[in-house]
UniProtKB/TrEMBL annotation:
Alphabetized PANTHER family for the sequence: DUF4283 DOMAIN PROTEIN, GLYCINE-RICH CELL WALL STRUCTURAL PROTEIN 1.8-LIKE
Coiled coil segments of this chain: none
Name this protein carries in UniProt: DUF4283 domain-containing protein
Limits of the DUF4283 domain: 33-111
Organism field: Gossypium arboreum
Length: 180
């Protein structure tokens, strides 16, 4: 057997590098509606239960395909931008009280290499005098808590609410800030 294997060699054709050119897809076809996510937990996520629950909870019009990528990461493939944007806008998301952190994938991004440390939250800021309810103060306070994303101006005058609503991007590796 050793003599038979000793005679094996690679031909020059087999050693040539294969180059793949990505010309088959146009700009519109390259647009993908994929999210990669992981749950903020040390425990194991039961994939079939999570898949069923998230699909029923999000109820996307065009559907969603959910795949387990391993390493506690999941790929969410949507078939319409509206479905994906609705999921991203509806943050925070949870399954069994575990926070789901999501990242919108670009065409060239590897879902296993994307850092998943940030998640958006709506934060209520109390004890701000109503005369100071302006977006520039909301931006400053939002950047103190995390990274400012948006200010909810529609909150003013609703049911005597005495707080500002600010959407911020929070780094889950850092402790929450409580007072300013």
């Amino acid at each position: 057997m050793e003599t038979g294997l000793a005679g094996l060699t690679l031909n020059e054709d087999e050693e040539a590098v294969l180059q793949i050119q990505d010309e088959s897809l146009s700009g519109e076809e390259k647009e993908v509606f994929r999210l990669v996510g992981c749950f903020l937990t040390a425990s194991v996520i039961h994939f079939p239960a999570m898949k069923s629950t998230m699909a029923n909870l999000w109820h996307p019009v065009q559907g969603v395909q959910i795949r387990d990528l391993g390493d506690k990461r999941f790929l969410f493939q949507f078939y319409h931008v509206m479905d994906m944007e609705r999921v991203l806008k509806g943050a925070p998301r949870t399954f069994n009280n575990h926070l789901l952190m999501l990242h919108k994938l670009q065409w060239e991004e590897d879902p296993l290499q994307v850092p998943l440390f940030f998640t958006p939250f709506w934060v209520q800021i109390y004890d701000v005098p109503i005369r100071l309810f302006f977006e520039n103060l909301a931006v400053q306070l939002g950047n103190f808590v995390g990274s400012f994303l948006e200010y909810d101006e529609s909150n003013l005058g609703k049911e005597n609410r005495n707080y500002m609503r600010v959407r911020v991007q929070i780094d889950v590796r850092r402790p929450l800030k409580k007072k300013k």
